Write the structure tokens for this entry.
Amino acid sequence: MEIGTYQRLKVLKKKEFGLYLGKEDEERGILLPKNQIPEGTRPGDMLTVFVYRDSEDRLIASTKRPKITVGEIALLTVQQITRIGAFLDWGMEKDLLLPYKEQQGTLQAGQQVLVTMYVDHSERLCATMRIYKHLRGDSPYRKGDMVTGVVYSINPDMGVFVAVDQCYYGMLPKQHVFGKYKLGDEVTLRVTEVRQDGKLNLSEGKPAYQQMDGDAKKILSVLEDFGGVLPFDEKVSPEVIKREFAMSKAAFKRAVGHLYKEGKILLSDGSICLKK
């Protein structure tokens, strides 16, 4: 009897408090509580049920559909934090344990986290945020496609790791990270490369030719906030550009050049001025 998965089981016998289900050659089976019995079910019928352990650690069957099964990936909400770990809402009576050793970052109640479910050494169902090996490299996406996903890991030295469609491997390299991200964020990004192993390299924003107008508007807005003069030109460091505009230096230079050609700004003496 595999826990954490759906099983096709036979109704072995009926009691006042429920049905006992099992394989053809079993005698006792496991309980399906009375309040979950489909109408008209009789001994000998076959039912598809989800098998897990209840609050007293007994094997039990359910006709409810949980938000996750063993090996699947799902975005679940943290219900509470305790001394043994976090407990997640997975649609069943007993919340799902996310042990401290399987967590990444500091969690709090109400936060959503991307996890997969496994069976621990004590034959209990648990969750883990370490989903890397469960992600796939066979996505249908190509360079230039816009994709959506969930942030599942952040490494300041490498970048932001994203589960595209909650099942494919994606990475936003640190040189392309300009916004602020946290675990569980749902994001929309652009595919810049499909690697040989099928994994996706990602970037913020649209292709350069589509993004330039938006970047130019952002620069004009900052110029207005600074009284029409920025104390630096297009040769400013990437760090300053990222801090003030949340964009790359290449995007900044493209937008500044665009504004200059349109006659909206002046470049002089290491500064950028709004043309009046």
In short: Residues 135-203 form a domain with the OB fold (Dihydrolipoamide Acetyltransferase, E2P) fold (CATH 2.40.50.140). The chain has four domains: 6-62, 73-132, 135-203, 208-274.
